[in-house]
Amino acid sequence: MSEIKSDVLIIGAGPSGIFTALELIRKNSDKTITIVEQGRNIDRRHCPKNKTGKCVNCKPYCNITTGFSGAGAFSDGKLSLSEDVGGDLPELVGHDAVKEAIRYVDKIYLDFGADCKVEGVGDNDKIKEIRKKAIQANLKLVDCPIRHLGTEKAQEIYLAIEKHLLKNGVELFFGTDCDDLFIDDGVCKGAYVRQNGERFLI
Questions:
Q1: Could you give the maximum distance between any two Cα atoms of the chain, in Å?
Q2: Burial of 92 (0-12, 13-18, 19+ CB in 10 A)
Q3: Quick one: angle between helices 151-167 and 15-26, nearest 10?
Q4: Cα 130 off chain centre by
């Protein structure tokens, strides 16, 4: 079984994996970075449903949910820019920390070509009227600015990110499954992965 050396191994090229690699690059890390992803790179992800009109249950995985950037590449691409939506994170780490994280991540999307326009801000009279109706219905209106990427634009942005990772030395293994972790004396030191029937250790 062959072995590939890497300082940092990231399993999965979804948002968490991508932003982990981006952050290492932004911090000028000198570590070698490898990402293993079972799906395809962004420009090779295509859904047959566009031609067939129905889901054909692609094997071994769905190109809409699997591949570089995960399901986000084919979503409508809406970024919620408020710490008041999306769960309990503000209560766990603090509103200011979440607000700063949102600002930080949003700036990364802008750097890779996201539209500068933000929806859901302005037109105060209309918002006041909606808020009034919400109160009357015993509801709380949460103001949430939205940066709308759009499906095609999202794919362009993630392709730009993919190219940026490659340009900065990140090794990307597509069509590669993680079989198991390599544990040595209770410490995870790598993973056993499989590509085209060949099993190797990273």
A1: 67
A2: exposed
A3: 50
A4: 32
Nearest to 35 by CA among 16, 52, 2, 13: 13
For residue 98, how many other CB atoms are within 10 A of its CB? 19
68 in Cβ contact with 45 (< 8 Å): yes
Q: What percent of the chain has pLDDT over 70?
A: 100
Closest CA to 71 of 80, 61, 81: 61
Q: Which residue has the tokens 């990110």?
A: 161
Give the pLDDT of residue 44: 87
CA 99 from centre of chain: 18
Non-local CB neighbours of 7 within 8 Å, separated by 6+ positions:
31, 32, 33
The Cα–Cα gap between 35 and 191 comes to 11
Q: What is the pLDDT of residues 32-56, one digit of tens each?
A: 999 999 999 988 888 888 888 888 8
Beta strand segments in the chain, E: 2-3, 8-11, 33-36, 78-80, 146-148, 171-173, 176-184, 187-195, 198-201
- Specify the pTM: 0.86
Which candidate, 59, 30, 68, 53, places its Cα nearest to that of 159?
Answer: 68
| pLDDT class of 177 with cuts at 50, 70, 90 | very high
Beta carbons within 10 angstroms of residue 133's beta carbon: 11
Q: Provide the residue type at 118 as one letter.
A: V
8 A C-beta contact, residue 72 and residue 150? no
